[in-house]
Amino acid sequence: MAIRMVNSLNESKILPVTFTWPEIPLQRSWPSQDLAGRDGAVPTGRPVFAPRRFQIRGTLFDLDPGKIKAARDELMAYLQHAPIDLYRHDQDSRYLRVRPAGVQERWLAVDKELQVRIDLEALDPYWHHRTAKQLFWE
Description:
single chain; about 140 residues; about 15% helix
């Protein structure tokens, strides 16, 4: 199944099936104060979840390097309209609201293949559900 994105212009984009999203980290931090001269620490606040930072990786390939460059340019233009609702696959109703933090490209096979890594950050670490949101606000 392919990854689906919806940008701030409400434009939907399905990434090629060569793109994957293998890890979705969730980190929890506990505010604390180290104990002077003793082992350990004491809690100083309630635990919070940090923003999620992760990557989508994929490959664009074609025998015509011009088509690869056009697909890359289209993807870069799409990513400029953040925030983006990112779905694990095209049939999913749950999403993370993300912002692009960077893109790395690596050309392979004499301009016949382009590896792309998109760094993303979800400031709100929680999954959202479009249907639940619509029902709540209607």
